[in-house]
Write a structure and sequence with these properties.
The protein is mainly α. The protein folds into two domains: about 10-110, Recoverin, domain 1 (Orthogonal Bundle); about 120-255, PX Domain (2-Layer Sandwich). It is about 55% helix and about 5% strand. The protein has helices at about 10-20, 25-35, 40-50, 60-75, 80-85, 100-110, 120-125, 165-175, 195-215, 225-230, 235-245, 250-255, 260-265, 270-305, and strands spanning about 25, 55-60, 130-135, 145-150, 155-160. The chain has a three-stranded antiparallel β-sheet with strand order 3-4-5. Strand 4 and strand 5 (about 155-160) form a beta hairpin. GO terms for molecular function: phosphatidylinositol binding. One of its GO terms (cellular component) is cytosol.
Length: about 300
């Protein structure tokens, strides 16, 4: 790519000082910066092809090149590395990316790790408190079954549920949140175990299960959980499946899904092209090695036959 030959305006230096960390600017920060330009993704992709970002970060020179190309593109000029060489002795144009103070907010946002929660552990525990007690009298005329009385502090509700209700609830949780780790339910029955001990152990396990779900940052506020903890009618299995079966999962309901294409960095296509070429070369070399091994094997068989 052509080197910068024009003079650098003060805005370029301000942007560099605002975004620079350890003499490098991360690829993620630059992606967010270029997105603020309002240019089409195809144009941003061409700008990425014109700068060097092989190690996941760029230096001061490449940042200036990116800013200059953004300014040229905003003026309606086609993106090309030759544009920079035509500005010898002239001041490079200033791109429209907003005030430097807004860029500081951008850097602050990109510093946050997506693996960090917005809640502390104690805040998650305060989402809800669940208590489960065993109803003393078993239900059913011929096939007796146990019922559990569930009390939710957050919903200020008390409902009765049987084990099959938990099974239906668990199936729908896996449908609603396919990308989350849903804890397993305790077994319905364990052989060689006294009835009282097993029922008490299952009650504790179900309470622990509901605590995990009701205190999960992504699930504690779901309509499915609210229904399970508040619905006081009959035929819970039928009602909950009728209400929520076929509902879209967590990602489809998220506002991010509507703008998923916009969240893909503009340099992705260029990186895909590089990766595709590298895979092609590796595949070609592996095929050559395989053919060589086959020929060596055939020659060895021929030599062994001649020795007999």
């Amino acid at each position: 790519m052509s080197e910068l030959t024009g003079s650098v305006p003060p805005y370029y230096r301000d942007v560099y000082e605002c975004l620079c960390q350890n003499d490098q600017i991360s690829q993620n920060v630059l992606t967010q910066l270029l997105t603020k330009s309002g240019l089409d993704r195809a144009v941003l992709g061409k700008i990425w092809e014109c700068i060097e970002c092989k190690s996941g970060s760029i230096n001061r020179s490449n940042l200036y090149k990116a800013l200059a190309l953004v300014a040229f593109a905003q003026q309606g000029k086609p993106v090309s590395a030759n544009l920079l060489g035509n500005f010898a002795g002239q001041e490079l144009p200033k791109p429209n990316l907003g005030d430097v103070s807004e860029l500081r907010k951008l850097l602050h946002q990109t510093k946050k790790s997506p693996t960090e929660l917005d809640f502390t552990y104690h805040e998650c525990c305060a989402f809800d408190s669940i208590d489960i007690t065993l109803v003393p009298e078993k239900k059913g005329i011929f096939l007796k079954h146990s019922e559990y009385e569930i009390t939710s502090r957050r919903n200020n509700s008390t409902v009765k549920r049987r084990y099959n209700d938990f099974v239906a609830f668990h199936e729908l949780l896996q449908q609603f949140f396919p990308y989350r780790m849903i804890p397993r339910l305790p077994p319905k029955k364990v052989m060689l175990s006294s009835d009282h001990d097993f029922i008490e152990a299952r009650r504790k396990s179900l309470r622990r299960f509901l605590h995990i779900i009701s205190r999960h940052p992504a699930m504690y506020n779901s309509a499915l959980l609210q229904f399970f903890l508040t619905y006081s009618g009959h035929e819970v299995v039928h009602k909950i499946k009728e209400q929520y079966r076929g509902s879209p999962d967590e990602y489809a309901r998220s506002p991010v899904a509507a703008q998923a294409k916009d969240l893909v960095p503009p340099e992705t296509q260029a990186e895909f092209a590089v990766s595709k070429e590298q895979i092609r070369q590796i595949t070609s070399h592996v095929v050559k090695v395989r053919d060589m091994a086959n020929r060596i094997s055939e020659r060895s068989k021929g030599n062994a036959t001649d020795m007999l």
